[in-house]
Each structure stands twice: as C-alpha cells, then as structure tokens.
Records
---
Amino acid sequence: MQKYERLEKIGEGTYGTVFKAKNAHTQEIVALKRVRLDEDDEGVPSSALRETCLLKELKQRNIVNLIEVLYSERKLTLVFEFCDMDLKKYFETLSTPIDQVTVQTLFYQLLRGVAFCHSKNVLHRDLKPQNILINKNGELKLADFGLARAFGIPVRCYSAEVVTLWYRPPDVLFGAKLYTTSIDVWSAACIFAELSTSGKPLFPGSDVDDQLQRIFKLLGTASESTWEGVSKLPEFKQFQEYPISMTWEQVVPNLNNAGTDLLQLMMVCDPSKRISAEVAYHHSYFDSLPNYIHLWYTD
Ligand code: AMP
C-alpha cells in the first residue's frame, strides 16, 4: 500500500507539481512536491539528495516543515506539511484591504523565517508571494528554502511560466552571483511593500531592463558614487538618471513612519548596505506587535 494517497493537484511551482495528499496510516494531510529532473540526467544528482536531506533539519515555525524525502524510480518527492494557501492566492481573494496589524504580523513572521535560515547559512534566492504560505490562523511559512542550491533556479517554472524578476535585487539583475543573504532581504522588502498595498507589486517589470528602470526611478540610478563596485558586475550597464517622481509616502501610503523607515533600510541597491533580516525584525516598526505573536517564539 502506498504511504501517501494523492488527492488533488494544488499548484505548479518552480521545481515541479504540488499535490495535496493524505498519509494512509496517520490520515495527516500533506503537500507532495514531485521534483522534475532533467530527462537526460541519470536519476537524482547526489548533490540534490544531500541538500534536500539537510533541509529536513531546518525546523522553525515560519519554515514549511519538510517531513521526509522520498526517492524511488529515479524520482524525488518532497513531503511537506500542508498549508491552506499561498500569499498570491490570499491577495487575489481579498475583498477589503489588509489591515496594518496583519501586515505587521505577517511581515514579522516572514523576517523570523528568513533570519532563521540565514543563521543556518541557507539562502532562499527566489522569495515571492507564491512560495509564502499562510494558514487560516494567520501563521506564515516559507516554502522552497534551500531548493535553489539543491536544484538551481530554472529560467522557466514547471508550467512554462518565466520565473518572475519582480523580487530580484539590482545586483542580481546586473549578473551578480546569487550567493548572499542580502538577496532575500531585498525580496522580503518587495513583499513588505506589496503586503502594505494589499497585493500591488512594487516593481512589476517585464524584462531585466524594465525591472532595473522601475527600481532606479524610485531609488535613484545606481552609480559608482553610491554603490562602489557596481560597474564591475558582469552585466552592468549605465542607466540614465531618472527624475524621482514618487515619494515613499505615495508608494506605500498605508505604512507608518517606522514601516517606511524599515522598508528603506532593506531596499538599498548596494547589497552590502542592506540590513540583515535579524536586524530588521528588531526594528521599532515591530514595537507594537501583538503579544500573542511574541509568545510563539518563547519555546
Ligand atoms: P512552490 O513550488 O512552492 O512554488 O509551489 C507551487 C504552489 O503549490 C504554491 O504556490 C502553493 O500554492 C502550493 N504549495 C506549495 N507547497 C505547499 C504546501 N506545503 N501546502 C499547500 N500548498 C502548497
């Protein structure tokens, strides 16, 4: 008898199809992620197996729990705890704006999850609303942490959709290698802005140039005077100086001063000047965080 009884398909992710399933022995509902591997590859690369097995040790309440890794007939299936929906779907189902306490509690949890993984030297590299999961009780959990290292970030998703650039920092858009924690901090900042506007993406670029232009129109065009070393990045090109036409108050009108300050500390073009996720979750923006959230982290 199969251990997991497959129920309906719940999504197409970067790495493969996700199914809802039930553990036939315990009745536990799980999410099965069947990782698609290159057809001409001989089975699962040992590096991918090693990396995914390490991820089983990455346990924190804001990280989707990887229950087990199944490897059979040259197929790799990751078994995760099941979550009700992802942030993208949550935005789509909203009928009224998200209240600012919810923005604060969700973003706090996002930062706690990111900071935890960074403390274990695990990067995400592709944070976006689709891989941020939430439960009915308001808990947030990050999916796909560490998978970029195990499998690489493909150019296209399983469903042939092009991987989104909207959450990529300017250093990565200029061809920097994807190996520092500051990448996730930028993506988290984009998601913070999007939470505060109830799902309006901050920089919805259509290609790399458009993405960089949108960023520079808000933050100013990157140059050696503000970001030392930028011109040495593999795909650097000089963009014109755009007149700054929007203030932060116009971009994120619902954020209070502390929230706007936090956003600006994270959203800096020079990756070496971005604050860390750990410093971010200690920011005064979270001074008024509801007490029940603090209690989640006391055990
Ligand atoms: P991902 O590969 O993580 O981007 O997954 C693709 C889609 O499957 C997501 O956007 C979610 O809607 C869904 N999904 C992924 N993991 C889970 C999970 N643990 N529980 C419920 N749905 C999930």
Note: The chain is about 35% helix and 15% strand.
---
Amino acid sequence: MLKRSLSASLLLAIFIAACKTQTPALKTTASVREGQGVYQFVEEDPLRKPFFSDRTGELGRNGMVASAHPAASAVGVAILKAGGNAVDAAVAVHFALAVVYPVAGNLGGGGFMVYRDKSGKAYTLDYREKAPGRASANMYLDSAGNVIPGLSISGHLASGVPGAVDGMVEIHKRFGKLSWAQVIQPAIDLANNGYALTERDATGLNRVKANLLKINPGKTYFFKTTSPADTTTWHTGDKLVQTDLAKTLQRIQQQGRAGFYEGETARLLAQEMQRGGGMITEEDLRNYHSVWRDPIQAQYKEYNIITMPPTSSGGVALVQLMRLNEPYPLRKWGWNSDSTVQVMIEAERRVYADRAKFLGDPDFVKMPLDQLMSKAYLQNRFADFSFARATDSKVVSGGAIPGYESMETTHFSIVDKDMNAVSSTTTLNGGYGSRVVVGGAGFLMNNEMDDFSVKPGVPNMFGLIGNKANAIAPNKRMLSSMTPTILEKDGKLFMVVGTPGGSTIITSVYQTILNVIEHGMTMQQSVNALKFHHQWLPDNTIFENGAFTEPIVQYLQSRGYQLEKLTNTLGRMDCVLVRPDGTLEGASDPRADNTARGY
Ligand code: GLY
C-alpha cells in the first residue's frame, strides 16, 4: 500500500540506495530468521565485535523474569513458582526493586505497564507522577524568566506526586491471582533482613553519599555500612538493611492504597516536603489516581506492536520510527551498514522533533496521534531525505498537521507459563531521583518535574526540548520517553521489551526490536548489540564504541553527520522472546547487574 503511494522521488532514492554497493559493516547470513541465532559475525577485523559481551540468553519453559537486579528477578521467579501469574510477579518485582535498586526502583516514583493476557487482550496502565496542585508553568524560572539551574532536578521542589504504589494496587486488583500480602512480603523481607550489595550497588551509593547527606541533613539512612573495618564506605557484599522502608511497605501491605496515600506515610511525605520547601501535600496524595489507557496497537510487517500511549511519547515514537524505515530493505543492507544507519538516524531526527512539538499529557493536551503514526504523514516527513547529505536539524521542526496549532529508570519483562506478559518501565527520573529521602518512611522521591518543559526550547537533563504541550500545569503528568512494549506475531506473544535510558529509551527499544526481526539476532544478541542514538537536538549521533566500523564513520562524516563516540553505554535492556517451539529466551543487559531468570 505504502509503496504504491510513495512519491516518485522518494521511490527513486530508495531504489538507488538499495542498488548501491554497501560499505562493508557486518555480514549476516543470507537467510535471516528472527530470534533463531542465524545472525553471524564474520567481519574481517577480529578486534571489533558488534556486541558488548558474549552473554547468552536464559532459557525457560514455564516462566521468565528479566530485571535490573538479581535479587528482584529471584523474587519474580519465586512468585511464579508459587502459582502467581505475570501480574503477581510484576508487582512483587516492582516492590523488590524499590528495596534492592534504590537508584531507580521506587515507591516515590511512577511508571507505565503494558499487559497482554494469554487470550491476547492488551491493557496499559499509566501511573506516571503528576505535578502538585500548587505547581505552575514558571515555577523553575527566576524573575528575569531564566531557568534556575538544578531546581527541577535536585531537592524537594523537583518531585511530582508519586504514582507507582497506586499503579501496583490497580493492576493487582484487576489481574492478580495471589494475595496482595503475598506479593509484597518478599520486598518486606529484603528490607528487614537486608540484601548483599553488588559492586555496582556499592559504587552507586558511595557516589551519591555526599549529595544525599547534603539534601538529608541528620539522616543516617543509606549510610550505616556493615563493614566493621570501614563504616563510611560501602563494599561489595555489605548488607543494606532498610527498616523504615520495611515499615512503609508493611503499611502498604496492610492498608493497600491508603497505606501510602493516606495516614502515616502520607503525613511523613507531606511533612518532608514542608521541611525542604517542596509542594506535595496530603491532598495531592489523596487525589492521585493511575489511569487505564487504550494501548497503541500498530502493524509492522507481520508483527503487531502493542505499546504505551501518551503520557509516554515512547509508543508513538516507536511506531513512527518503525514505519519510517519500513519501505527500506534494512535486512538486505545489514546491521549498522551505511544506509541502514542513515535511514534510522534520519527517522530519529524527525520523530524527536515531533515529540517536542506535539506530545504531552492526554488529559490536558489534544494530540493528533493517529495522524502522527499514519503512513501518509510519515511518507511526507521523509520527503526531504537524501542519501547524499544529512538533513540539518535546524530545518526539521515538528511536522505540519492541518488544524493543529530522562538516564536512570528501570525496566522489567515477565512472561508466565500461560503466556500472560508484562512489560513495565518505572523511574525516579535521575539516579536516586531528587535525592530526598522521606524522613521516617525510608524511600527516595523522584525528580520527575524535570521531564516537563520547564521553559519552551530549553533542554531538560536529557537534552530534550519541549514546548507548550509539555508545559507545567497543576495536576498534569510530565511527558515521558519510557517505551514498555510487547510484540505479537501471527496473533501470538512474540517479544516483551524495554529499557531505561531517558531520551535514549525509544531508540534502544527500536534497535533491539529491529535486531531480532530484521537482522536475525537472538534476543540476547540483540540486547548485547552495540547501539547508537539521535534525538533531533543536539544534532549529533552518539554511539557506543564499536557500534560503527571505521568505514561507516567515514561514510557518515563525509555526508555531514556529527558523530560522538561514547565512553559509557546505551540502554539496560530486559527482554523476553518466545521462540517458535515455545521456549522463552530471557535477555538481560550485560552492561549492568541485569539478570534474567527462567524455569
Ligand atoms: N524520566 C525519564 C522518562 O520518563 O522518560
């Protein structure tokens, strides 16, 4: 359909690109079957590999949990083995991450969940934070109208009203099988008994210690180390015991939603806000409710993409990206070949410009979602694309539609024995959020207010530009990039995918899906594969070391692309693939402590 309606010039560009000799990148075998491991690395340079590591996927027949922390994945599998379904496991993993992964797991944050039940019905739950009732558009500006540096990022004023606990209550009430008490108990045990820190856990806590002490004067929380030889520095294997957090979890266990949004926890949270000049009140907490939204469902070739609608931009952007590359023979061109990369970068440039112009909280902003994802609109978005030269981001703004005026997060993917599947991404926004620990309640607050456009055209902590659609307003949700996604093939569950990474979430999910369905990688290979990212502004492409060969770098630079090789990494994917024989392949990211556990 699309091909027939493509403009002649666009068809010609695609034809020329398809015929031209490719700069050799990586050769793949001629027959590509997704997720079957037919992808073969045969590049001449033995020192360069397209993968971050050689980790292989975890296989299971009865259930799979992939999350950011081994202790949380173990909790998820224990719940499945106890007869729980994917939703029970998801709630248990969420609360476990709030204990063992304070960098992003949370009670004081928010997130999104995509759920596909065994019959194929799909649901999405939005438990994104909201601006407090007293918030205002200019709350982070000085009297001259300039952004006050750091105010939306650090400290009490940076927090939105948390949504995660309400989200867990809602999803469990509707789809859980085990009791509420049972799914929270593992988190309470981890908080009371402590858990052994990984090297990464210890390094993270040591890194933020000075800042936590500054923002939380007099609180000893997170600072009582268990090494008798050195009580001020965390070491691998030290135990982190969190008794205040355990008490908060017990209140949630006993009282459900009221254990967080009313009573003792709400009082402690509001008191903490008052102490530090924050805005959240007990009334804000009482008024918070998560929202069931209609999932975005879109066809890409033989796959059905089920993903998150706004308040996240992730789903819309993912569908736009996939549909922009659909007319091009990426499979034939190969993984990260010159033309493949060029098409993907140009798609990303345009999609992030649309994100900035159009997207925001659906309860506040009217958005042309169907048009943005329509093939006709997207075809027009690529009308000025040429393989000869990079498009200049300065001349790309959000597309014209007639009549129309965040790095630390965490993701987990779960599939149970009946093929119920959960894809959930949750966040405090920055690492350890606003760094505010709620006194007496033992949990960290988010700094999600920075995901609003605090001033039109001024980039947020991820360099993302926003506009009126994402301006601050009382009780409004801030736009997100989180992209929890599920794919079906032939009406059956095929893939569960997602990652943290702020603005890079969307492009990491995009590449991880394409790596499997176009380039024939296994789920784990796809997660391991090195990645790149472009987000319209700034107009450069960042890439993991090794993602592009030297000839590809030269090809792109000769056409005007600004490239930046990263010293760090992109994405922390946690995914599950259903192989044709029904085996589950869990793939967790080797870039951090992520762990897949199946049985
Ligand atoms: N806080 C990162 C995001 O929601 O995109």
Note: The CA atoms of residues 338 and 552 lie 6 Å apart.
